């Protein structure tokens, strides 16, 4: 293999055509699949082969890493013998001292990959100590490689796996390296990058109050002559504040001085922008504290720095370069400052108004320069979320006519920003413009804006979108300020939805932007329509049905743009069906099912919006939809078996649930054998799907069991295995990962519901289902207890759900587990102490069992 693989690798990196590259790629794949073990050894031999071209040696490292980590049943690395792994680890360390940096970096990625595989299994414990030791080597090549590898490991591995001792070693080595290499820009960049990735691990160090040295060393290098070092320093500061907000008190002064100097004086735009992001991170941390902890633990860094910080960001906004013809939305010092100002407004509330209004007022009223008006409007729009409605009304009302008139200003940039400002007002305080005083004069300008340049039109239609949502009638209110113009609003938004922007195809992201904005506004108009415009919604249902038919009628094939419009139109019909509160003839349901199936046929594929529309039909027409299940079924099967989109699969699962629970479909019980194996093997077992798709699959399986009952038995054992695997994800959850915790809470709900469906059927289903379930009962009980742990902040509703499941378990499987445990007694006591009658009844029921 050695001679052949060297030629193949060289042929791949030196390929002069795609065809030649594909041939060599196929040869590499064949060699790997023929004998993965030998392939790994061959890659490392070639990585150490000094006669091989450097690009080919670099490639071998990538192939080694990907092969070692790959494998259908876990990493291939662990299928090797202990002796093979030991030899490979010895070989991958050799090129860390290679002459060529490209080779060294490739070797670093290999060492890091193996370390991240083995360290979680308490294997290769010496690697961290060795790397830390050699990070101070006299040999600069070895020093560089050690630091790069540490950075790669820190980037990928979990801090808990690394442990406190190794974390201390890594942090100490990096801090020493920052001092030792301060005159070596290349090593400083590498060290600061590794420091950035290590900060998340330093919790134990900061908890013990020993994080000062880390902050000191990072701050010290904020003015390093090398711009890349300064960039990474700012990134480190943001990460430190994000992770250890409460530990930076005594350093906020130096951090403030450093960032202010960089923002005002640094010639590198990216460095200055990252310095502003440091303050954005502070803002986000304090906003999060107020939202989650009602301000408890907030150090009020922003309030303390507000006077100087507001002036600093306004200085950045004022000094920004603006090109009226520039259509890009680049992230720079100016846009970051606008973002920071917006975040500060959420913290400071009314206190931010005076300095910003003074700035904006001068810019808007005291000059005719388009740039000044643009910047004033931009600053004003940035602070609309945070201050009270009363204070904003007091400030904005006297200036409203002046601002409205800017809708006709000659500068397109100003018109665009005026429309954006009104959309922000509509989003945050809709009553300020959605009243009899302001709206009539504003409305004509909005209509003119819809016919203006694309960006002006997009922002104008956004005003309609936000007003429709913000002025949604409350109970008992049959109309609002929009009622008299509702038909015109629907017509004008439809025109935007179908507006042809092909002449703007040279402008990035502009061609479909107005179409998307138009449809978004239509969704909001339909969803939030007041009661006195309901006849318009009935008319719109027929109009948009006809538009959907027109996307395929008389056409042999359709293009991507037409497919997009099919999706948009399905969402329109879905929203209309959900909103119309009057009786609809079942003929409409039959027609819409037919049009959806024709859309599927026209594109030879399914799409998520089509399934959402079918679910809306289930909700609206319930049992009438049962007759259409034989037509719909093949498309559900297609989505579950061939669908690559997680959203489409999620909505196909949702449709199965709707057919089971709303329609109580007879036909789905006849054909459910087509769905369940796909739900288990194609969805639950698929590691690449997004989490929400699997949540929907769990619910769909439970709902299917509920209506098929004993017919489900052939799939029950496999279902319980998948459910058990999913339940194990709820153990040892990283509570700092808010997205993961949110998913786990949803997963708990789906599993509780599905387990309850299954358990409640046992008494009537016979001995076989009882025997199948029995081995899983202790695990289900353990899962139930975990769901009400304080870590997940369970709601009263969740505790009731868990209590119901435990009660069903006791009733049916009294001898299969020990239910007289402290955790169950605590649930009983908790419910008995609640004020509502239902909680007390559940508690008494559990006691009686």
UniProtKB/TrEMBL annotation:
Could you list this entry's UniProt keywords, alphabetically sorted.
Cytoplasm, Protein transport, Repeat, Transport
- InterPro entries this protein is in? ARM-like, ARM-type_fold, IMB1_TNPO1-like_TPR, Importin_beta
- The residues the entry assigns to the signal sequence are none
Domain (Importin subunit beta-1/Transportin-1-like TPR repeats) spans 443-816
Q: Quick one: a GO biological-process term for this protein?
A: protein import into nucleus
Q: List the SUPFAM superfamilies.
A: ARM repeat (SSF48371)
Q: What protein am I looking at? A: Importin subunit beta-1/Transportin-1-like TPR repeats domain-containing protein
Query: In which organism is this protein found?
Result: Euplotes crassus
